[in-house]
Amino acid sequence: MGRSMSAVRAASRAFLLTWQSIFRDKAALLLFFISGIVYSFFYPLPYSAETVRRVPVAIVDQDQSALSRQLIRFAGAHPSILVVGVSTRPEAAQELVWQGEAAGAMVIPADFSRKVLAGLQPEIEVSGHGAYPLLNKVVLNGLAEVAGTVSAGIELRRLGATTASAMQAEASRQPLTVEPLPLFNVREGYASYIVPGVVVLIIQQTFLLGIGLLFGSWRSEKSFPYAPGAASYCGALTAFALVVTLNALYFFGFVFWWQDYPRGGNLIGTAVLTVLFAYSVAALGMLIGMFFRTRERSMQLLVATSLPIMFLSGLAWPMSAIPVPLQVLGWSLPSTAAIQGFIATNQMGASLHEVRMELAGLLGLMVLFVALGMRKWRRFVLPA
């Protein structure tokens, strides 16, 4: 009984010492808490529009007929497209693209209306600026939709001449109707897709940087605030895990509500994932931190890892397209399982059974990092 009470006191003392050390170190405090607040307002800002709209395009009208002018009007009315120039010369459109004033172009050939009236199928050239994949996709899809709308109207007029009513003509042209219904990303926006996953990476990386500063300072100054033993390790681990948990609660609770991202699908599942993620990241941070001899070393080694870790997580690049050795490397980091798990539970309402692989991955990493960290702890607290 006395030994257990002594362990509790040692753990409680380490817990309090950890928080005192965080609040005394301004740089660590900035990374642990202030940076998350800054990120929460400025990182989603470029994606606030959710979808790309009013992308500038140039149109080459070599036909100059009533039908080609209708096509241009339809392009101007499309929400994704902004017509910035109409000319009869392809060189003019090419110049706008080269100057960066247009992200794509549509060329209406000189025989466009003649082929339509003759019952033939004219060809419209659509091109986009390949240097900007997102804008290129919007331009190509938008101009294709414009051409498809005009084509449908022409076809309906032809069918209307041979059928009894316009409704029969529409049913004859399109016997099956499709009604797309987005289930989770209801806005079909980029921010709702990318930000919830990147938030997990932000929490992990800022924490690893902050804890690296603390441990590097303790190592360089030979001033270790902890007593040796497993109890002090567990107290410090719980304190650091609480830092990660508070950041997760801020992002998942306030930021997602403020930015109106999909959220709250499975609160219990998200809570379980948060606890496992917090302890696994805290254990990883303590393990890595004990290898730093100066506080600057964490910045030098960890800042450049954020982008590779993001690609390894399967968020920006499909997991099935990642080579198996890199998949194994990705799953050795808490962020991979956490990103997949949080998106599934918080955004999509998945059950704990459906994210069992992510839960098992975080639990396994937590046990591994804690085992390695406790082995390193005694030598760190009591250096030879």
From TrEMBL:
Q: Where is the ABC-2 type transporter transmembrane domain?
A: 29-374
Q: Specify where it is mainly localized.
A: membrane
In its keyword annotation, does this UniProt entry include Transmembrane helix?
A: yes
The subcellular location is: Cell membrane
Q: Which residues cross the membrane?
A: 27-45, 190-218, 230-258, 270-292, 299-319, 355-374
Which key words are in the record? Answer: Cell membrane, Membrane, Transmembrane, Transmembrane helix
Topology within the bilayer: Multi-pass membrane protein
A Pfam match is ABC2_membrane_3
Name recorded for this polypeptide: ABC transporter permease
The species this protein was found in: Massilia soli
